[in-house]
Each structure stands twice: as structure tokens, then as C-alpha cells.
Design goal:
Elements: H1 2-36, H2 41-58, E1 63-70, E2 75-82, H3 86-89, E3 93-95, H4 99-107, E4 111-113, H5 124-130, E5 137-143, E6 149-156, H6 166-201, H7 208-227, H8 229-245, H9 249-269, H10 275-279
Antiparallel strand pairs: 1-2, 1-6, 2-3, 4-5, 5-6
Helix pairs in contact: 1-6, 1-8, 2-6, 6-7
Length: 280
């Protein structure tokens, strides 16, 4: 009997510890979402396609694509494709270093080609697979904040002029910067969902189907954190602070002083019976 009671106590203590862990985990993930300025996966996918389409409209081009780098498998994959080749090429992969886009992915340098059919760097096998044979090509790297090449943004067959010029290259690089932001947000969201799934599964002894279900539900949990209005306002504030922090020391100090003043104001206003509380 005493042994059963001891086991019950251990089980009760373990459950309490698990619940406490989950509560702490939720708070930590909420903070991570705010600090990292995470974005939900589906909106990010929509925005990526919109960025590629907009780039092709601003720099008139009938075909465009966003390739993503897989460093582990050393592959480059068509992630977003616009134009006639969209249905054929989306999801297709080829080795890093192959073709114009592959070279940009490896070198991290932009490339403009004026006559692709006579350029030995052009991947004619990929063109044959797509059924589209471009004349001019512009490809720029999509680079993350740490300098890693995340992908390549490419446009084909410049309209309105013989070839892509330096102004086009600069403009497409600007679009690539926006793509990089969205890719890092999407990657952070995926990491957050995986973290939740692994952390919950790590509570121990879960059958494989249950662990799989937890991993699926974790994506919804991560999205719920990010959709919370308070979290969104916190993210917006965090982004503003990050922008100021990248500026001059004087701007950084001024921002810190303002935040401290608001923090003192909030503390004072929350005190029962305070003059500030009556005003609010």
C-alpha cells in the first residue's frame, strides 16, 4: 500500500512538472515569436509568389522563378515559377552549380546573360525539359542575414530592350532582399513548429502515431501564437526597435530612454489608486 502511494506521488509530481514545463514552453515560444518576428507559412508562400510576379512586371519579363537552395543535398529547386513553364517546372531540382541559377547559388554573385543559346553556362537540358528556350537571363542571389545564399531569383527574356542591364540587376536585387526576409520568416516558423512537436513528444513514451499527430498539431499551435493580437503588436514594436538599434548610437540611446519612460508610465498606471489609473 505504501509502495502504491509512493508511485502515485511520483506520478503526480511528474504530471505537475510536465504541466509546468509546458507552461514555460508556451511562454518561451511566445517570446521567440515576438523577438524573431515570425510569419505564418501560408501567407509567406503567397507573398513569395507575389514578389516574383511583381518583379516580372516591373522588369518586364514573361518568365520568372524563385529557386531554393538545399545545401545538404546540394540541389536547387524551382519553388515559385511564373509563366508558361510554371506547371512543368515547379518542384523540379537540379545540382548546385548547374546552369546560370546554379552558378549564382554557388558564387553568390548576380549574372546577366545577353545570348543564352550561345552561352556555355546556360543549362540547355533544363530549357529542353521546360520547353522554353530563353534568349536573355537575369539571376540574382537571395542572401540571408548571415550571408548564406538561400536561393536565386531569376527572370527570362527582357521585354522592351535587348537585354537586362545594371539598373535591372539592382532592382531585382531589391526584390531578392524581400524574398530573403520572407524565406527566413518561413524557416523560423517551420523551426518553431518542429520545436513544439519535439518538445511535447519528449515528455516520453508516446507511440509513433501519437507523436506524429502532435507534430502536426504543433504547426497549428505555432500559428496560433503568431496570430495572437498582442504578439503581433509586440512583433511590430520589436521590428521598430531593431530598426532603431541598427542606427546611430544617439538614436539607440534616445529609443532606449523613450521605452524606459513608457515602462515607468505603465508601472505607475497599474498601481491601484494612482493618479494615472484614474486618468486612464
Amino acid at each position: 500500500m505504501a509502495e502504491d502511494q509512493s508511485q502515485d506521488n511520483r506520478h503526480s509530481n511528474g504530471s505537475a512538472e510536465d504541466l509546468a514545463f509546458l507552461a514555460e514552453l508556451r511562454v518561451a515560444l511566445g517570446s521567440a515569436a515576438a523577438v524573431g518576428a515570425l510569419a505564418a507559412a501560408s501567407p509567406a508562400d503567397d507573398l513569395l509568389a507575389r514578389i516574383v510576379r511583381t518583379a516580372a512586371q516591373v522588369i518586364p519579363s514573361p518568365e520568372g522563378a524563385l529557386f531554393l537552395v538545399d545545401q545538404e543535398r546540394r540541389l536547387l529547386t524551382f519553388d515559385v515559377v511564373i509563366g508558361k513553364t510554371a506547371a512543368t517546372m515547379r518542384g523540379t531540382s537540379f545540382p548546385l552549380g548547374h546552369g546560370i541559377a546554379g552558378l549564382v547559388a554557388v558564387s553568390g554573385q548576380s549574372i546577366a546573360v545577353a545570348n543564352a543559346q550561345d552561352d556555355p553556362r546556360h543549362a540547355k537540358d533544363i530549357a529542353a525539359q521546360s520547353g522554353y528556350f530563353p534568349t536573355t537571363i537575369l539571376a540574382v542571389p537571395v542572401t540571408g542575414g548571415d550571408g548564406t545564399v538561400l536561393g536565386v531569383l531569376e527572370l527570362l527574356d527582357r521585354q522592351g530592350q535587348p537585354a537586362y542591364d545594371l539598373a535591372d540587376m539592382d532592382l531585382l536585387n531589391t526584390f531578392a532582399e524581400q524574398v530573403a526576409i520572407m524565406l527566413e520568416h518561413r524557416r523560423a516558423h517551420t523551426s518553431l513548429a518542429g520545436l513544439v512537436g519535439r518538445a511535447l513528444a519528449a515528455l516520453g513514451g508516446l507511440p509513433a502515431p501519437v507523436e506524429h499527430l502532435i507534430r502536426e498539431r504543433s504547426a497549428g499551435f505555432a500559428a496560433a501564437i503568431e496570430a495572437d493580437p498582442i504578439t503581433r503588436r509586440t512583433v511590430e514594436l520589436a521590428e521598430l526597435v531593431a530598426t532603431v538599434a541598427d542606427g546611430s548610437p544617439a538614436a539607440h540611446d534616445a529609443c532606449a530612454d523613450i521605452l524606459r519612460a513608457f515602462a515607468r508610465y505603465g508601472d505607475a498606471a497599474s498601481q491601484p489608486g494612482s493618479d494615472l489609473e484614474r486618468l486612464l
